Amino acid sequence: MTHFVVIMEGTLAEGLVRLFRNNVWKTHGLLESIISNRGPLFTAELTRELNKMLGIKIRLLMIFHPQIDRQTE
After folding, report:
1. Quick one: what percent of the chain has pLDDT higher than 70?
2. What is the DSSP string of 11-69?
3. C-beta separation of 43 from 34 below 8 A
């Protein structure tokens, strides 16, 4: 399925997330995958903004920490 939404040139990640929320998420829910030619930094910012807007708390761990793992359960 494809959705086309008109945007202004120079739209930042926050603006794209708002457009996504208003035009796609409300109908179809969360993403299954992201395809982007904008690079990993932009995709990471887009994901961060989406999580923030939807109220999803992200706790990324680089190594095993039993104390933190118990807090996220």
Report:
1. 81
2. --HHHHHHHHIIIIIHHH-S-S----SS-HHHHHHHHHHHHHHHT------SS--HHHH
3. yes
In a domain, 1, yes or no: no
Residue-number span of the structural domain to which 23 is assigned: 13-71
Q: How many distinct structural domains can be found in the chain?
A: 1
pTM listed for this prediction = 0.59
Q: What does the block give as tokens for 4?
A: 């086309």
Q: Find, among 59, 19, 13, 14, the residue nearest to 39 by Cα.
A: 13
Tell me if 31 is assigned to some domain. Answer: yes
Does any domain span residue 49? yes
Instruction: Find all residues with CB under 8 Å of 18, minimum gap 6, and list them.
Output: 53
| 35 vs 22: CA distance, rounded Å | 19
H or E element at residue 8: none
